[in-house]
Amino acid sequence: PPPKVRATHPDCSVVLYFQEQEAECLEVIRSESQTPAPPGPPGQQGCLTEWDGVSCWSAVPVGHSRAVTCPDILHVFKKSEALIWRNCTELGWSFPSPPYYNACELEAIGSNNDTEAKASYFVTMKVLYTCGYSTSLAALFLAIGIFSCFRKLHCTRNSIHIHFFTSFILRGAAVFIKDAVLFSDESINHCTMSTVNCKAAITFFQYSVLANFYWLLVEGMYLQTLLLLTFTSDKRYIWWYILIGWGVPMLTVCVWVVTRLWYDNHGCWDDYTSLYWWVIKAPILLAILVNFLIFLNVTRILAQKIRSPDISKNYKQQYMRLTKSTLLLIPLFGVHYVVFALFPEHIGVDARLYFELVLGSYQGFLVALLYCFLNGEVQAEIKRNWGKWQSSMESNVFNLATQDFTA
């Protein structure tokens, strides 16, 4: 059989530890209940095995004691060699002495005010990224509609933009789906959830994130190809771009799903402590690194072309227009991911959540703004069609008025 690796979410490690200890203790209690008690006077048969919510106390005769050590859990109990004792009396087990919170030096737990403040913080975060993704989805759908409706905007460059917009739409939808599946019902224990629906939601989310990064990579690759191969038709490369943008993430996610099913089919697959998380993380870091190299190379090529005396002013303006959006997006999307990738997942959680959820939720709106709404070609086409529509309406009104007058 393949080796199994149990990788749990850090927030759930405590819950799962106590559940495992309780399951082992209940198994002992079950086996004792099936064994007939030895003959003896009532009340003198001893204390049976008991689970008190923290430790498992093995059975002992009346008048004897049992000692246990503190649970070995990071960030819950401080390391202490003190023992907790319980006596077996005729009335049953005595209370633990000393109490766990004294003997084990329980880590300081935040006050109710701190807990409420933390809950309010996460509620605020959710409201912010929900507004951000909603705004981005509306802007992206509008941008796709603009590129699709106007025939003069149908070209390879805008086709790539549409795919890029679609990846942002999938990413926003994946966030909403993941929230609906994992966190909509507060009665469900997220730490023990291991349903097909939650695994499918996480898989769709990972695919959307990967596709988002790889279509950003395609945008950079297309820009570099356009600058290097000026006289080459860009239509011949469109299927390669589609294969990279959608195919590579699909292959990566399939490998990740098979790996999780075979080696680590535990929980809801939303943990980032497993070694198999690198099946997703490594391709993302690779896309960011390649994009950064493209960013440097495009900057170098652009500087050479602008300085070249053989390039006319119109071509220089065209190069500036083509590169402006991508040069802004590549460092904007990649820098903070590279910074966070250098640290473990549990470091800088608040900053990571803020960048990836709050600021990340508005990236789709920023993309639609740069590539569509602030695009001079798009603005000119909208103005031209708006003028045609106004002229048509005025002509229709004039014809109607003329018909009424002549009638």
UniProtKB/TrEMBL annotation:
Entry annotated with the keyword Manganese: no
Stored InterPro entries: GPCR_2, GPCR_2-like_7TM, GPCR_2_extracell_dom_sf, GPCR_2_extracellular_dom, GPCR_2_secretin-like, GPCR_2_secretin-like_CS
Family statement: Belongs to the G-protein coupled receptor 2 family.
Domain G-protein coupled receptors family 2 profile: start-end pairs: 24-108, 125-375
Pfam family, one: HRM
GO cellular component entries: plasma membrane
Gene Ontology molecular function: any one: G protein-coupled peptide receptor activity
Parts of the chain that traverse the membrane: 127-148, 160-177, 213-231, 238-263, 275-298, 326-347, 353-374
Keyword terms of this UniProt record: Cell membrane, Disulfide bond, G-protein coupled receptor, Glycoprotein, Membrane, Receptor, Transducer, Transmembrane, Transmembrane helix
Domain of life: Eukaryota
Topology of the protein relative to the lipid bilayer: Multi-pass membrane protein
Segment forming the signal sequence: none
Protein name (record): VIPR1 protein
Any single GO BP term: cell surface receptor signaling pathway
Organism annotation: Nyctibius grandis
Localisation per UniProt entry: Cell membrane
Keyword Cytoplasm: no
